[in-house]
Design a protein that fits this description.
The chain is mostly helical. 73% of the residues lie in helices and 0% in strands. This is Acyl-ACP desaturase.
Length: 307
């Protein structure tokens, strides 16, 4: 880690400590097993029961795709832990946060997998094969600086919260919606933590922070992008309105950027101003792309209704 990165982490440490205290006061413990309908479970063939068939699933194809992507994304926690521990360290308040965040995130995949297996929502053999491939491949965010990592997770945690909530609503299952709403509460608290740290970093070094924000706005990709079948499933999820370009623009990027006062700051230099212009140009292009896909979707609906 460079000297400048070390200095930044040291300067942010009191902010980390204060936000960790705020987080611990706000978080409410929950038990993953409470959200799983165990009475609906039955043995598979290995124990004398029956293996999964497509007719077993109470979920439609959209819900199966979304839940699979959400679960496999959560499955890669070992890699995510490595990423944030490498960027932020394991000492002091930073280390305490890394441990707390990892412990809280660990419940998500446990609860989602138990729900899907017990309810036979998806093929458990295919799911396990995908988990093995995805987790073995791991996740590598590249050579991000601590500032870039803070910017990325601020957006990513919010995106994950929205994806979980919308997947729950689209599932058609009240139990899945209840579970995913609870997982989304964790993700929201994590987003607030990272968002607050990035706000403090902007006050310390606005030009460097804006450059990092620019990098992550322009290059953002969900951490599940490398999983098997991601593109196909992401398209299904987008067409269903669970997570698409409009949501990414309106509900993820803009709220966080406005919270940081990216468009209103008067303390930026030439580098920060250039980064802000690039963010503005990108948002305009993203908004136009989102509008294009919305118009295509509307045209498809009109054609279907006409038929």
């Amino acid at each position: 880690m460079t000297e400048s990165n070390t200095a930044l982490l040291y300067e942010l440490e009191p902010v980390v400590a204060a936000n960790l205290d705020r987080h611990l006061a706000a978080v409410r413990p929950w038990q993953p097993h409470d959200y799983v309908p165990w009475s609906r479970g039955r043995d598979f063939a290995f124990l004398g029961g029956q293996d999964w068939t497509p007719q077993d699933s109470p979920l439609d194809p959209v819900a199966r795709a979304a839940l699979t992507v959400n679960l496999l994304t959560e499955d890669n926690l070992p890699s995510y832990h490595r990423e944030i521990a490498t960027r932020f360290g394991r000492d002091g308040a930073w280390g305490s946060w890394v441990g707390q965040w990892t412990a809280e995130e660990g419940r998500h995949s446990v609860a989602l997998r138990d729900y899907l297996v017990v309810t036979r929502g998806v093929d458990p053999v295919a799911l396990e094969n995908m988990r093995m491939a995805h987790t073995a491949a791991g996740y590598d965010s590249g050579d991000k600086t601590p500032l870039q990592a803070l910017a990325y997770v601020s957006f990513q945690e919010l995106a994950t919260r929205i994806s979980h909530r919308n997947t729950g609503r689209a599932s058609g299952c009240p139990l899945a919606e209840q579970l995913l709403s609870r997982v989304a509460l964790d993700e929201n608290l994590h987003m607030v933590f990272y968002r607050n740290l990035m706000a403090a970093a902007l006050d310390i070094d606005p030009d460097a922070a804006l450059g990092a924000i620019r990098d992550e706005v322009l290059g953002f990709a969900m951490p599940g992008i490398g999983m098997p079948g991601f593109e196909e499933n992401a398209l299904t999820i987008a067409k269903a309105g669970i997570y698409d370009l409009r949501i990414h623009h309106d509900d993820v990027l803009l709220p966080v950027l406005r919270y940081w006062k990216v468009f209103d700051r008067t303390d930026v230099g030439a580098d920060g101003e250039k980064a802000r212009e690039q963010i503005t140009d990108f948002l305009a292009a993203l908004d136009e792309r989102a509008r294009y896909y919305e118009e295509k979707a509307a045209a498809r609906r009109e054609l279907a209704n006409a038929r």
